[in-house]
Structure formats: structure tokens, C-alpha cells
Amino acid sequence: xxxxxxxxxxxxxxxxxxxxxxxxxxxxxxxxxxxxxxxxxxxxxxxxxxxxxxxxxxxxxxxxxxxxxxxxxxxxxxxxxxxxxxxxxxxxxxxxxxxxxxxxxxxxxxxxxxxxxxxxxxxxxxxxxxxxxxxxxxxxxxxxxxxxxxxxxxxxxxxxxxxxxxxxxxxxxxxxxxxxxxxxxxxxxxxxxxxxxxxxxxxxxxxxxxxxxxxxxxxxxxxxxx
Amino acid sequence: xxxxxxxxxxxxxxxxxxxxxxxxxxxxxxxxxxxxxxxxxxxxxxxxxxxxxxxxxxxxxxxxxxxxxxxxxxxxxxxxxxxxxxxxxxxxxxxxxxxxxxxxxxxxxxxxxxxxxxxxxxxxxxxxxxxxxxxxxxxxxxxxxxxxxxxxxxxxxxxxxxxxxxxxxxxxxxxxxxxxxxxxxxxxxxxxxxxxxxxxxxxxxxxxxxxxxxxxxxxxxxxxxxxxxxxxxxxxxxxxxxxxxxxxxxxxxxxxxxxxxxxxxxxxxxxxxxxxxxxxxxxxxxxxxxxxxxxxxxxxxxxxxxxxxxxxxxxxxxxxxxxxxxxxxxxxxxxxxxxxxxxxxxxxxxxxxxxxxxxxxxxxxxxxxxxxxxxxxxxxxxxxxxxxxxxxxxxxxxxxxxxxxxxxxxxxxxxxxxxxxxxxxxxxxxxxxxxxxxxxxxxxxxxxxxxxxxxxxxxxxxxxxxxxxxxxxxxxxxxxxxxxxxxxxxxxxxxxxxxxxxxxxxxxxxxxxxxxxxxxxxxxxxxxxxxxxxxxxxxxxxxxxxxxxxxxxxxxxxx
Lengths: 226, 559
Fold this sequence. Notes:
The complex is a heterodimer.
Chain A: H1 8-21, H2 28-31, H3 35-38, H4 40-57, H5 69-111, H6 113-122, H7 132-145, H8 148-168, H9 174-188, H10 190-215
Helix pairs in contact in A: 1-4, 5-8
Chain B: H1 2-13, H2 22-30, E1 37-42, H3 44-52, H4 55-59, H5 64-72, H6 75-89, H7 93-101, E2 104-110, E3 121-127, H8 131-147, E4 151-159, E5 162-169, E6 175-180, E7 183-187, H9 190-202, H10 210-218, E8 225-229, H11 235-243, H12 247-262, E9 263-272, E10 276-284, H13 291-297, E11 316-321, H14 324-334, H15 337-355, H16 360-366, E12 367-376, E13 387-394, H17 400-420, E14 428-434, E15 437-443, E16 455-459, E17 462-466, H18 469-474, E18 487-494, H19 495-513, H20 518-529, E19 532-541, E20 545-554
Antiparallel strand pairs in B: 1-2, 1-8, 2-3, 3-7, 4-5, 5-6, 6-7, 8-9, 9-10, 10-20, 11-12, 11-18, 12-13, 13-17, 14-15, 15-16, 16-17, 18-19, 19-20
Helix pairs in contact in B: 1-3, 11-12, 19-20
């Protein structure tokens, strides 16, 4: 059964693997990790670490590397990178929708009949000096917090649906998988190539909005830092 | 604070509908026409009024998602902060929205050239409905910030007979602004504000500016919010990126670079009507595109005939019109040599021997152009997994349908033999004949999840594969190809169908997928889907470009 998210045990095992590969812990610690016995993903991590350690420790001896190991590692790395990019995309789209929805609720609340009086009162001169920047910052923090009910499940959704699809489609028989894999890997790289070409556009647009936020920050404190 | 301000700007954009073209054109007339990025938000006040008075706005706060957002929103903090800040300026949200930001706001940005880090350009533009209100607010802001020691001085200067103002900040980062002929310009660069004043003096007011013309060609003149990209200032960056790319990416990026050179304008946009639409629009100098690229990137679109076969209760569907041979040709063009060889080897080693290598090109030509894949809710007591159906038009040319049918049956047999050789439980293959043709199904007690029985048939000129034979029995081949309208829906998701499915099968699905949090994720997804009636991905083509958009129809009208 596919695992949805890494558990705490998975994170601990991953940390052990990293520490062993970095030479911070003895290789025997890999054998002592009980979680790997019950988790296929972590078993794979530990096995890959053992192969790597064997290769590093005894270069003159031929190391029995499983067939397709390098391709498998590269494929996993690419798949992981793509998964992270997909997650970032979903999170950013979800974030945008969340902000829009939160704003609708906020604007609705600001315009609710019961609030009109207080808005009108707000137009009177404040009884004490109000730091405009601090007040807007407070409102911004409140809106930012509000997006979580949307962003968190939206970010988890692709993995859940991927797991459903995996449950419906049994693994492809090995011979067919081996034949299809090279082409599948090449096709899966196309979106990365497209992103490379679009980097000047996305980078410039991100800079543009960053400059906008900097420049409209007229309410921020302009006092020299002491 | 900046976040709130950007969000307010975005909110102002949330709503569309053609209003007077004048505010937009006034603003674009003085915007730098050669800026790399130009952002425009227009008719915000009208849109905000329409949305806030809409059936959706009346319903949403009482929906489960609306209540969750309201609970988490810390409305007291947000409301107090905004009211206190605007109160200090002597204004209200209504006044700011209607008189200042409600008609047209935007900004233009060009990155610094590589050899001149100080050459970055940025100017913010506002075309207020009531310039006097904006003047009053800016004066009040200057007064408050001077009182708080954030501004050292506010100075008045002149350029070409027009006045502009300098805000001398205490931290040394001076700011400049001008209000001229109804358009307010603000920048940290004095040169940019002066350039606005120059354009105000020289650009004609009686015909559309270059930027307005670009928006018109993209079909986005009335969009609520647009991020317009001028390709030319980015040519050098794109060329450098292609030159420095990995060898595996170069084939694709070579074609990308050719299309980029022919690109005249690109934009990301948001439009509002009954629902919301957001997408990407491209406009090319079509004559400079290669014939292959022109076929993909320009021209009217026709929806797949198979939309007529997708049931109304489908959870989601994707469909299009392209022949398998065309897709293969495109992939071979954009893949690097090694990957192209891998693709050819994959086809040659899998389909070639089964179909007959000499027949493979004919089969690929015969597959399409209409195709679709969709997911339906499962039948009662058929397990929690949805039924997935894929269909593609299969031209009746010679022996092609029979060859395809034989090949698929071979594939089913091969899968059956491979499984049966290693498992105690066995897969059986069943075949039934009716007036439409032969339906072939794999059945097993344990090999497939409950409700899953892979099947295929060639029916009414379509090859249909499904995870249930019942879905193929229900399949009704569409009779006609719809006429091209310039727009084609390529994907669709149904909010009510997905919500119902998730709620009905929540527990069983959670068991299938596994993991403690899955049930809660399904619950929250159902809540998220509550406002959604339907979401569609649409492609629109014109003689010179293409637009790809996501169109969301909420459960109640947005306007």
C-alpha cells in the first residue's frame, strides 16, 4: 500500500541514513533500525545506503549493484524533484485561492450591517496617534493565517489522488516496464525543460512583484536603523 | 502590511465586466511601452460591488468553508488594523475602493540590464475616479509620516512644466510622485516619474497606446487583472538560458526559442463574470512561426466529439482532438536524440511486434483525432474506486480496427499469463458479442481491487477501454463532430459529483489508500469543493495566438 506522507519513523530512519553516509554514525546503525523492517520505502533507503557504502569502502572489489540501480536512483531523484515542484505549484495556486476566499469573507465582514457604524467611527480622528504601518501589518498577519484551511488539504490532494490511481493500476509486469521506462523518463523531463525556458519570464515577474511590495511599502517605518 | 495592500489590490481586481475603457487607456498611455512586465487591475470598484452583492457572496460566508475561513481569519485583528489605519488617514474602505483604486491601477517593471545593476525601472500608476480624494490621502499620509519622523521633508519640483513631488524619507530612500491629467505615478526613481510626465506630454490621447493595442490583440482588454509580458526585453535572458541549458533540454528549448522570437505578447489574466476565469494568453507574429508550431499555437479549436459520451455525473474528464501520429511527431521533434531513439525503441519493441511493424504507422494515423478519458462514480456495491473509461476514435481503414482489437486482446492475454504464472488465484478472460462488436474482460477474485475488471471493445468506430465492462456497455458513440467555435473544453471537474463520491466512499477509500490522515484529507477536500459547481480547462485559438484558461463556475453566480 502506498505511503501517503513520511511518518516520524521514516524521518528518523532517513536521518540515520544521512548520518551514516556522512560518516557521523557507524554503518552498524543501519542494521539497528527496526522501522526499516516494516516500511518498504525505508527498506529501500537503507539498501541503497548499504550499496553506496560498499562501493565507497571497497573500490577494488566488484560490487554487486542491482541491475538498473543508477537509472533507478536518477529516476527517483527526478520523480522527487517533480513531486516537490507539483506540490509547490498546488500550494501556490491554493494559496492564491485561499487569499481570495479569505478576502471575500473579510470584505463581507467589513461590510456586514453591524459593522458599518464601527467603520464610520473609524473615520473620526483617532484619539491617540496611530502608527499606520503597524495597523496594516496586524491586518496582514490575520489574513495570512486564514489561508491554512485551504492550502493544507489542497497541497495533500495530489498525493492522495496519486495513491488512488496507484491502487487501481497494478504494477506493470517487469519486462514491459523496462521497455517503457526510458521513453517515460524522457517525456517526464519535458516540463522541466519548459520551466528552464520560462525562467526569465517567471524570474522577472517575481522580481516585479517583489519591487512592487517594496515600493508600496510607504507606510513602513522609514526611520534610519540605529 | 504590504501583503494586505497587495491583497487589497488583488481584491479590487476580483470582478470583471466591461466598464468605461477610458481609465485603462489613460493609465496605459503613460506607462512605459517597452517595460518587461506591465500589470493592470481595472474596474475594481464595479467588480467588488457586483461580487459583494452576488448570490455567491450571500451564501459563501455561511458555507462550511466560509465558516472555517471566518473562524481562522482573526477578523477582529484584521478589521481593527484596517479601520485604524484608514481612520488615521481620514477615509473609509469604500472611499478608497471607489474613488482611488476602483477604476485602474497598475505598475510597469523592467529588470536591470546585466551591465547596469542600477538600471532597474519601476513605476506604479493609479487612475483614480476622484483625483481630489487621492491628493487628500497622500497629503494626509505625508503629514502623518512627517509627524512620526519617517519623512524628513516633502518637496515640490518641476519637469517640462509639470509638477512632481519628492518624499524625502528618513532612511534616505527618496520617493517621487506626480498627479498629471488624472493619472498618479509613483516611483523610487525620479527618472521614471519624469518619463511618465514626458509621455503624458507626447503620447496622443485620441488613439490606443501600444500597450492597449497588445491587450486588445490578446483579447484581454476588459480582463479584471492582467500581467502583460513584453518578450523583447527578455530576449537576451532567454537566449542565454537556452545556450546554458543541459544537452537533454536543448532540443525542446531550440523549438521554444524559435516560438519565443515570434511571440509578440503574453499575459496571465483573471476575468470575472458569473464565474471566474484565469489563464495564459499568447499572441504571435504568426508568419514567423514554423508550420508545425503554427498548427499547435494558432488557429480555431474544435472540442472532442467524445464530450457527448462523457456522462453528466462524471467526476472528471479530459478530452481533445489530436491524432496519435501528430502527438508522436511533436514528441519526436522536441525530444533529444537519445530520448527520441528510446521512444522509437519503445514503440518498436512493444506495439511493433504486436500490431506488425509495417502496420504501426497506419494504426497511429487511424487513432484519433477525438479522444477522452473520464472517471465515473462506481456502481452500488462495486467497491469505492471510480470507474475509469478511455475512448479514442478509430478510423475504419482496411484491417486497422481488427488489428487493434487483436493487439489489445494479445495484451490482455499476456497480462493474464504473466499473473497466473506467479499467483495461486487466476485471472480469466471473458468475451461477449453483441450488435456493436466484441467486449473482452479480465476477471479475477483477488488480482484486481473490488469493482475493477479491465475491459475493452471496438464500438461504433471508437476503441474503448474501461475498468468495468458495464461502462463500455453504456458507452454511446457520438454521432457528429461538433463544429469549431474557436474554443474547446479539454478538461472538466464536477464539484457536486466529486463531493458526493468522497462523502459516500470516504471510509472505504481511506482503507484503500491507507494512512491515518487520509480520511481527514477527504473530509477537508469535500469542504473545499463545496463552492465549486464545475471547473473547466478551455483552449481558445485565434489566427495569431492561443489562450489556455481555467474557468470556474461556482455553485452560485459571482455576479
